[in-house]
Design goal:
mainly alpha, two-stranded antiparallel ribbon, 2 strands
Length: about 140
């Protein structure tokens, strides 16, 4: 039987070295570890939904100015995703530069719940829908 090779692990998470120990071959970390990177910008607290809804739709200020979008893993049922895709396709055919993210953001901003009571009611309605028996084919 052949012998398995031995692997020696070296703890060097920052991968910054200055000296190599000739006897062991292990690198020694630099005297001063590198400082952590500073974020590109300070995170701004998200405005409360009620504050966003209070502004009229014709307001001349953008409540999301300077904010970056958060990439969120959202799972949708295929018919919802396909319906959204169809809407986006039709809007593009009409010459509108739009994508699914823009439509979803608009839906959440203009039609999403504004407080916990509205959110609770919406979730209860959704769960009641999902609890119904499947349609017969």
């Amino acid at each position: 039987m052949s012998q398995r090779p031995t692997i020696t692990l070296v703890d060097n998470p920052v991968a910054v070295t200055t000296d190599i120990d000739e006897t062991t071959g292990i690198t020694q970390p630099a005297e001063k570890p590198p400082t952590q990177r500073q974020p590109r910008r300070q995170e701004q607290p998200a405005p409360k939904r009620a504050q966003l809804k209070q502004q009229p739709e014709t307001a001349e200020t953008n409540p999301y100015a300077g904010m970056r979008k958060v990439q969120a893993p959202v799972r949708l049922f295929p018919p919802l995703w396909d319906g959204l895709e169809q809407i986006v396709r039709e809007l593009r055919d009409e010459g509108h530069d739009v994508d699914k993210t823009a439509v979803l953001n608009a839906v959440l901003h203009f039609n999403g719940p504004t407080d916990i009571d509205a959110a609770r009611e919406l979730v209860n309605r959704w769960r009641a829908l999902l609890a119904k028996p499947p349609a017969r084919r």
